[in-house]
Fold each of these.
Amino acid sequence: MLWPLTAHDNRCLYGVIDGFFALIHPMMQPPLKARFLPAGDTALVVEFGDTAERALNDRVLALADAITAVGIDGVVEMVPTFRSLMIHYDPSRIGAQALARAVSPLIGKAGASSRHGRLWRLPAVYGGEFGPDLPEVAERTGFSEEAVVQLHTGVDYHVYTLGFLPGYPYMGDGPEELALPRRETPRIRVPMGSVCIAFRQAGVYSLESPGGWHLLGRTPVRLFDPRRENAVLLAPGDKVRFEPIAADAFRQLEARAASGELEVKPAEVSA
Amino acid sequence: MRPVLQVVQPGLSTTIQDLGRIGSQRLGIPVSGALDATALRGANVLVGNPQGTGALEMAVLGPQLLVEADSVRVALAGGAGRLVVESEDGRRREVPALTSVRAVRGDTIKIGAVAGSAVAYLAVEGGFDIAPFLGSVSTYVRGGFGGLDGRALAAGDALPLRLGEVEARGEVQLRNLDLAPAVTVRVVLGPQDDYFTADAIEAFLSSEYVLTRDADRMGLRFEGALLAHSKGYNIVSDGIAPGSIQVPGSGQPIVLLADRQTTGGYPKIATVISIDLPALGRLTPGAKVRFEGVTIDVAQAARREFEAMMAGLPGRLEAVRPDGPDLDRLYDSNLISGVTDASAACPGA
């Protein structure tokens, strides 16, 4: 029997799904191995792996798109993360087994994400009071401050997932040359708009918050603004490119952002 | 003049909450909403609202509100509290929790200490006239949005009401709505129970945990048997469910509640089942709980039963009997003696 999910061990949930794939592909390894993990009685995790890799993230986003396209009754919302999709559902409308059964065939079908992302050009002022960690990052990586800025602005970042703060983007993959672990002592207050890095990830603090990443600069663009119709600017799958500006330009743009007049539009790009 | 409740005293941490901001977690926006959803729903039923209508959530000390509307109907739910309606002429009516009451212009609605639960709710008939943000009026103070300007109430605030007057009708009460704080908390293991040793799982499910002072709308930090990780305590961040129990390097469990982040990077040993969350939201520091493992099927069957019970709440409203505890007489005797003695006011009960 495929779905003996009334068993008393909830681990059956994903054990059985591994079996499901084995039945579809008796002669080969399942091409898209995924685990179903229970997160209580109102959320189900579909996990593709335990690392932060583009290939995994593409599958996560593709599965989210596929579920949205099919429409599964009882699915309340989905949260794509680096390497897994959390499906929040209403257990009064669909049970864990039925949900897993509805999602399984979509995992098999979902290849790489076919999402057409948007490219956002975010102006950012680097160094000085805006990027207090730029000198230290330069020193520790052996580059000049200018070269660090060039490296950081020379990459189109992929938005893996949003989390930590409303509208905070976890982005990658930054240049290997700038990969540093998080600061040993996190800051209590990081200003809104701070452009930051840790390991090969990049972020932008969408609100003032505590934080332990290295601060390279600041963008006047508000990634989260509850006054705006699209309160959150970025979405998973989007691309972000930072473009250096001078302090004066930053102050002008920031004043416009404060009064809600700074409008930023993305360009459409293929994924 | 638009109808409002004028905030005379804001209380210690009073915010507007409904059943949460569903549908924006993929944008990093927390769900928020009532810590004790059952009490919120009960309060709304008492004033004839849909159960998810936004109401005032209060902690520790409730507010004092001046009625600047022709009339308003309110009900308090949660804890062992009661509210007092003071009229301009000095008349004072005490109304127990889970009982509706109508107040008129010039009355002051006073709610004192929140006792017997961490939170209590005041619902108003018709609800507050507040624009929802992303589909919800729940306040998320850390992000500065939702509710009244994204913050807790302050003295001088005016809470706009949808209704300027409410009909004078018999008041109602709800009995047997269980609003007790949690003692046993049922959990489903996972999603990262494989990050813990077998001993840790055993200890987690068999020993007592005490709620520390680190308890707020975001989560509850417990103290008890240490939970050893079997393969480190850093994972690549993934989604967080309501009631996720994450265990950071300290080895002590943190249960994540309404204002939880949407994603997180600590292993989650288990998840509190949805119908046990409201009782967890009622806990105050020092409370002792035990975690008990159940299957998803058990949790979902219990949830369906619970929702059926909640759907039937309006049918369980009872009239506040004129010949039962005579509230007016109760208030009058109260004015004289300052002591509420229900048995004296209701001989033979």
Amino acid sequence: MQMESRVTEEGIDTSILVQPKKSKEIFIKKMMTQKALIAMSFPFLIWLFIFKYIPLWGWSIAFQDFKPAKSLLDQEWIGLEHFKFLFTDPNFYRVLRNTLGMSTINLVLGFVTAIGLALLLNEIRHAKFKKLVQTISYMPHFISWVVAASIISYSLSLDNGIVNIVLLKLGIVDEPILWLGKETWFWGINGVSDIWKNVGWNTIIYLAAITMIDPEQYEAADIDGATRLQRIRYITLPSLKPTIIILMIMNLGYILESGFEAQYLLGNPLNLAYSENLDIYVLKYGISLGNFSLATAAGIFKTVVSFIFLFTANHIAKRFDQPRLF
Amino acid sequence: MFKSKIFMVLLMFVLLVSVAGCTKDESSSGKASKSGDSKEPVTFSYYNAASPGKDMNTNETVIGKELEKQTGVNFKVEYAVGDINTKIGTMIASGKYPDLLVPDAALPKVLDAGAFIELNDLIDKHAPNIKKLYGPYLNRMKDKDGKIFFIPMEASQGFIANPNIDQGAFWVQRAVLKEAGYPKIKTLDEYFKLIEDYQKKHPEVEGKSTIGFTALTYDWRFFALSNTPNHLAGYPNDGGVQVDMKTHEAKVYGNNDDTKRYLKELNELNSKGLFDKEAFVGNYDEYLAKLTSGRVLGFFDYGWQIGQAEDNLKNAGVDDKRYMALPITFDENTKDQYLDPPSFVSNRGVGITVSAKDPVRIIKYLDNMVKEENQKLILWGIKGETYEVNDEGRFHRTEEQIAKTSDEKFREDFGSKIYEWGWPRGNGLYADGNAWEPRRQAEVAQMSYTDGDKKLLEAYGVQVFSDLFAKPEDRPWYPAWSVQLEEGSKEQIFSQRQTDLQKKYYPKLVLAKPSEFESIWTEYKKEYNALDVKVYEETMTKEIKKLIDLAK
Amino acid sequence: MGKKRLFKATRYHSGPGDYIFDVFNYTFMVFLCVVMLYPFLNQMAVSLNDANDSIKGGIFLWPREFTWANYQHVFGEASIIQSFVISVLRTLIGTLTSVLGTAMVAYTISRKDFVFKKFVTIAFVLTMYFNGGLIPNYLLIKELNLLDSFWVYILPGIIGVFNLIVIRSFIEGIPESLFESAKIDGAGDFTIFIKIVLPLSMPVLATVSLFVAVYQWNSWFDVFLYNSSVPELSTLQYELMKILQNSNASMSGKTAADAFASSNSSANSVTPTSIRATMTIIASLPIIMVYPFLQKYFVKGLTLGGVKG
């Protein structure tokens, strides 16, 4: 393919890789024709550098016994001490397991439910009803976790909880279940809570993507006598694929971000072994003990893991010739 | 493209409006002369990280207006909203402080940063009243070089117990006491027996099962459970340690027989079905709801954590469902020590920062407010308006005055909310024998007692509720939890790990089959002893001995 | 023509399978609405219920002891109106600038032949996964002289990287032929961006506007961090946070030391639970109303159908 490439009128040329010398000239030439694009993006690159990259000097405190009172140069350098604290603490591996477990569950459930809801909403033909459902389904996103957690906790309680009441009425269980007291169930409860709160919100982006679909496709399908499920299967879903893949890659980078508030608020002494995640751990041993260095070290660790997941996912997408992030 | 033009015009318009609308704040530090004697009006800034409140100027309140009249000083008050470590951290990083700062738990960081100016000279020259009020404690305010950098919140003058129990106690529903004929209950066994008997007779309350005993375990409030064995063994709330009265050695009790004994009792209670199944699951709101439901017969807690539930029951007028605090101990002859001894909390306070332009006027202001007449103004208010004085010179409040002074809006406008806490002040008793603050004055407490309260007090032959509790012994180091551990130190990490371990094991120990209790306890103790117990105990002992020396 | 298409689509039922599908779908949606609406109605009920009575729990959809007291308490704080204006301003300006800026960069990295495409993309994407930390960020804001200013709400968030990628994906879906014909007509990239990309991207711009608007509206931490000493720049969420914390004296800390402090304050006539419920209603109703308004841009076929037809 590279062999066949030609310089086209627009200047698209993949032979850059093959002929380094000539390519430099072409690169400059091309750059000159793209002044507008450069003018549109470079000011924001400067912004990016100032607001996002400059504060990265803060990472140095992960290698120091940081005391906010001293200036940066007077800090005591202690190397990888804080990383050692993390990696030698058995609790760290437990919270890491919980973080990965919960974020995987949230990721998979989150994608499936959001896409599912978007597809179902797309099949509603009463425009007003559809709008109503859309709006209502995203409302829990605006409830703070404190409120959401107290509603969840109450719904799962022994005597008054709606969940136990319904299960008892239906004869599924004989006596009420202490939901939040079962440590191994916590990941599931957390996942469902997250869906409840965010599925409507997560759906918005797919609904926007669906508007991209050419209506003629549906018309053609109708003429061919396609059923609703066939339309979903062969038109809507494939059209959403690029969006899904891009979002998937981005979210894989957040694999160590399993949320914080839900676990903190729904956590209790009985489910602690499974509810405590990385962020709670950092809060307890870093921030609340005034140990910013440890918190920063944990942040760096998270970034490294993010990058590994991000680049791997992007690479896999590339290998399978799918849309990718970069 | 008509639309995009509108878009642009709109954008421009909004930008312009917002530029016009945003003004920089110029007022903060005093611009007045540095003489210190001047009464020229000046405004300083004050930041309080210890308690939330409404941001305002002190001279917008009655008390603040009066103090401004006396000194010419007004404070622009700001309260912490989010995490205080964050906020104080940004102050330190930027070197931009308010003039007067209450850093609360972030105090060590502020001291480390050298953000507070030395007060020794200022106090000597300009603050005779502070010197007098804090006299007994001046040594404890000094750091190892003899320098004073902040003024602790409160200096007790003599002892007076709060007539109502706001600290730790075993609480029992009044109906339980009534039915048993108001027995005198002293030991834990008697207490649990009382509850068991009542529960047998009344297995249900309004169609739901009666809960014999519950515990508050949610989030940081878990300490209400882990502190209990210490109280049962006859110690006050000294945080994580028991301090020997003779040797002054500090020992942790998380792994000792007191803790084991209490957990074993709870374990038995659980096997009898008397312990709340949801005690380790419910959050704070659910806990309060449970207490107001009338289903709970007993629990251990600190009074200040159940205020909302108590208020609710009191307002509803259901006296039988309210709770009474009892000083329960393990054994008959253990002297209870639930009431706080006179204490001096030396790791919290208010300091003048390096950003302050006129420290002299600030210290004079603080000095002026600890004068007895101003302390009475701040805490009691104005005679004839918020309190009365009888022929013997005793202060008291009428029912209307009590209602008025507990209204939030009034407290805000009057200035009580700003001034009650977060400035130098006294506590205990005035020279004339009145309580420093109204809530400790028996006359005030008695005025708000209901008929049910009076009946109960009569049945036990006491005037106020705290009369049932033993007088606290002298503990010059009290409270040991105010010992400042170095941030990120082994001692501090020990505390955190201890809590983690207790949160993991206490539920197991309580909910286990009685036959399994011993083996779980052994497992727990093994893990516990693997922590840095020694380091922690040594530091605590050292610090406590230091405090004792300073108090001499 | 549009009407005809709509009619065709609504009328069509190709068999019993579709009928069953519809029954299932509508039933499910109704169920969903009940579950999703509940927390809101519940908070509404709690906010209209006597604070002291709410402690008992058991408020579901209807207040037990009706009162306006919680709202009176919250609105009794004089600064609510002023902070509401600032909130609206930061939401409007923040959304407009961010959407414009983000779309502009998104356009450049959607151009397959842009020589810096990959560089710019990666430079932005990486920042999603790291953070220099609170103190360095604070010092940066201080050095840029943005402390105590309105612009600290706008500038740091001018590009949202997630939104950037979302918009880019959308622009990549616009047929290349449109750009080519515009170029042949002599249009430059900026003209193409303004005249073709922006109008064609309305659905995604509406989506991103919603994301940014919600973020801006809900932010209070930057107010706390950078502008807390300037009451004129306070926002609604921050004021509500203050009222909440104020009602919440005993939650101010995690140690027994704070217990000591809080035991010195008297019982509150409002409770955190009631204030939080009231806040939830006051703060979220205005922003929730934004979505239905933006939904008109979500109409299928508005973009491509429009161009082709």
